[in-house]
């Protein structure tokens, strides 16, 4: 056997084979061409419907095999607005689910409508869509990752109750792009909106039986179609083309304002659930190729949702890649957060590998160059926790950061009240503050970490400091659902209280959590509503509530307005101080441009000793970060962190080149103070219990 020479070109992954090009409907002057992949089908049929009666079949046409599992047909009736489905016939046997009577959604559909139940079929029809749109020269903002501040929110929940948005736009794509919403985002200082799933999705039958619905949207019907219920009523009536135009119009207006759009995308499973569940698309086209199974046809469910997309097959992997290409280019979105991304990186033996062809193709694809790629680096399968393992080109949700920050400010404080001492020292917290170098290697650097304290899944920030346990009875599962380990602390009363001392301590805890998030190295992600302390009344799994419980309220009490001002102040401080935003980890053996050189001091202004890093009795530190300029002026900051409920006296350190420290922010203030007070090295600063204070070192 002859080994290839070192200069030989790398093999092209099978998922990039030209045979998979142009799947779905392509329009031309004579109508359209439909291409569908099924490696095991015996026959595929195009079924066309009346424009208004979706049970009235007006024409059918067989698809012809053209090689590599691709089937094709041309029809003059495949024109914009045409309603269609496919029917697929194939062999029986373990793992197959062919039924030639079932009407199926074509996987590359750009539009969907729901209609009556056809014989043996489902309730959805694909729609041919004219994808043209006038972008008016508006380009993507292309915000550098080190300057990115992500705001995670729900299209409907953000605007459903906003008094400054016309009622006709409440809960819609257009509502999100309304000047009132854009003004809030810009004033807050975020740079990107990360939207919970906007691919067409359906609620599970189980939720319908409980009188609930899938609000979050992690139950995709199709990977190319925007969810129509988020469009305005007028555009829903006009049809899928108008829905798509509204979505693109939202992206355009957000881009004009300098805001990026990141989509939370669910490629790991579909709404077809477990075997025997709905057969709406992939299951009826080629169940064996699209879903992970054992030899006997049993699903390998690594998602906890009944099925898992089998990206070890080229067709399934290409479907994911093509969907991302479509949204990034045709729809001009700026990035993706891939839900349960570990599932997408599993090979044919169901083992995760960071070198999975799909994961590498997503990073290397020229069509996705410059697009932000964020992995949720876990699933529920064996070996599913992969934080830190996704390789170059990826950023990852950092659950280690979340857990350590919550522990430090909440559960450690709770423990100390019970045991008179904290369980751990400050060293682990400091590592997270500085970019999680113990999780992400030197090559990837701190920007591989998407830092978050809360997300859509779990307690809100307010509830994190107000509840010890979850309160999910309204979900219909006897409080069994949702995480049991929340690392939360109610500070002395479960839920609502009139005790002003408890309320004040909770407010300071929220400011500490927000301050840590926005002053840490890495990419911060703020959950919508946390900036004003919204509550879900202790529900930490509100996925099934499309109601005022999950819709943001915009009528705020004074303390909520104060909290918003803290977030605005912190995002501005982050923008103005590049030492807080390192691109790379600093190295001891060389100067690294766009890194921050970090030094650590104790409360006495002395270099931190190993004993003080780990001692539960010493939870106060001074963190100094000095930038190594590349594109911005030199900058140095000092952050004090004090993690006990006793006040502290802290001596500012003597550092070569530093003549004064200018106070920029303090978490013990109910509202950010305007004056920038200066202190000299050696001065003593009083710190309130469990608090932070930031200085610029000059």
TrEMBL record:
Keyword Hydrolase: yes
Keywords: Glycosidase, Hydrolase
Residue span, Glycosyl hydrolase family 13 catalytic domain: 126-574
GO MF: amylo-alpha-1,6-glucosidase activity
Residue numbers spanned by region Disordered: 475-499
Key word Iron present: no
InterPro entries from the UniProt entry: GH, GH13_cat_dom, GlgX_Isoamylase_N_E_set, Glyco_hydro_13_N, Glyco_hydro_b, Glycogen_debranch_GlgX, Ig-like_fold, Ig_E-set
Top-level taxon: Bacteria
A Pfam family hit: CBM_48
CDD domains tied to this protein: AmyAc_Glg_debranch, E_set_GDE_Isoamylase_N
One of the GO biological process terms: glycogen catabolic process
Similarity comment text for this entry: Belongs to the glycosyl hydrolase 13 family.
Name recorded for this polypeptide: Glycogen debranching protein GlgX
Species per Swiss-Prot/TrEMBL record: Microbacterium limosum
Organism lineage: Bacteria, Bacillati, Actinomycetota, Actinomycetes, Micrococcales
């Amino acid at each position: 056997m002859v080994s290839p020479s070192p200069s030989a070109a790398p093999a092209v992954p099978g998922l990039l084979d030209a045979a998979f090009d142009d799947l779905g409907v392509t329009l031309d002057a004579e109508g359209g061409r439909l291409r569908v992949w099924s490696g095991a089908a015996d026959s595929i049929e195009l079924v066309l419907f009346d424009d208004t009666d979706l049970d009235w079949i007006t024409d059918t046409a067989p698809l012809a095999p053209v090689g590599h599992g691709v089937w094709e047909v041309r029809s003059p009736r495949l024109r914009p607005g045409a309603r269609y489905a496919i029917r697929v016939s194939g062999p029986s046997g373990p793992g197959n689910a062919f039924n030639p009577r079932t009407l199926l959604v074509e996987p590359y559909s750009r539009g969907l409508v729901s209609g009556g139940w056809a014989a043996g079929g489902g309730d959805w029809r694909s729609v041919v869509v004219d994808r043209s749109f006038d972008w008016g020269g508006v380009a993507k903002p292309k915000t550098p990752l080190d300057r990115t501040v992500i705001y995670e929110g729900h299209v409907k929940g953000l605007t459903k109750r906003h008094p400054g948005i016309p009622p006709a736009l409440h809960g819609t794509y257009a509502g999100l792009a309304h000047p009132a919403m854009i003004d809030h985002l810009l004033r807050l200082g975020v740079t990107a909106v990360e939207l919970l799933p906007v691919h067409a999705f359906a609620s599970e039958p189980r939720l319908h039986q409980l009188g609930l619905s899938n609000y979050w949207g992690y139950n995709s019907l199709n990977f190319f179609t925007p969810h129509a219920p988020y469009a305005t009523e007028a555009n829903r009536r006009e049809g899928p083309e108008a829905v798509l135009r509204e979505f693109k119009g939202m992206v355009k207006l957000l881009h004009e304002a300098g805001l990026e759009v990141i989509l939370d995308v669910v490629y790991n499973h579909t709404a077809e659930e477990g075997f025997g569940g709905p057969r709406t698309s992939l299951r009826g086209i080629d169940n064996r190729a699209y879903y992970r199974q054992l030899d006997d046809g049993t699903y390998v469910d690594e998602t906890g949702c009944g099925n898992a997309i089998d990206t070890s097959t080229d067709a399934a992997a290409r479907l994911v890649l093509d969907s991302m290409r479509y949204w990034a280019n045709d729809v001009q979105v700026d990035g993706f957060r891939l839900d349960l991304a570990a599932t997408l990186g599993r090979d044919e033996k169901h083992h995760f590998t960071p070198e999975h062809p799909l994961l590498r193709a997503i990073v290397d694809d020229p069509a996705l160059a410059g697009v932000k790629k964020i992995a949720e680096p876990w699933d529920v399968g064996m070996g599913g926790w992969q934080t830190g393992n996704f390789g170059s080109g990826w950023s990852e949700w950092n659950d280690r950061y979340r857990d350590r920050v919550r522990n430090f400010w909440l559960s450690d404080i709770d423990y100390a009240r019970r045991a008179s001492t904290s369980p751990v020292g400050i060293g682990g917290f400091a590592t997270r503050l500085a970019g999680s170098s113990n999780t992400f290697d030197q090559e990837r650097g701190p920007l591989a970490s998407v830092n978050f304290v809360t997300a859509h899944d779990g307690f809100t920030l307010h509830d994190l400091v107000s509840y010890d346990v979850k309160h999910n009875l309204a979900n219909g599962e006897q409080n069994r659902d949702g995480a049991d380990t929340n690392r939360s602390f109610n500070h002395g009363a479960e839920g609502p209280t009139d005790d002003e001392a408890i309320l004040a301590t909770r407010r300071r805890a929220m400011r500490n959590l927000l301050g840590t998030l926005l002053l840490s190295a890495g990419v911060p992600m703020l959950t919508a509503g946390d900036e004003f302390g919204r509550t879900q009344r202790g529900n930490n799994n509100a996925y099934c509530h499309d109601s005022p419980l999950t819709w943001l309220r915009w009528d705020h009490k004074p303390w909520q307005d104060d909290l918003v001002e803290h977030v605005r102040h912190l995002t501005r401080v982050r923008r103005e101080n590049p030492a807080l935003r390192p691109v790379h980890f600093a190295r001891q053996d060389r100067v690294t441009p766009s890194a921050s050189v970090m030094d650590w001091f104790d409360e006495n202004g002395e270099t931190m000793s190993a004993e003080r890093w780990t001692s539960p009795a010493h939870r106060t530190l001074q963190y100094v970060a000095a930038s190594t300029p590349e594109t911005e002026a030199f900058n140095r900051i000092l952050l004090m962190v004090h993690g006990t409920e006793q006040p502290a006296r802290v001596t500012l350190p003597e550092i070569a080149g530093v003549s004064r420290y200018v106070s920029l922010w303090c978490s013990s203030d109910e509202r950010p103070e305007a004056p920038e007070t200066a202190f000299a090295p050696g001065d003593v600063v009083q710190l309130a219990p469990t608090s932070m204070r930031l200085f610029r070192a000059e």
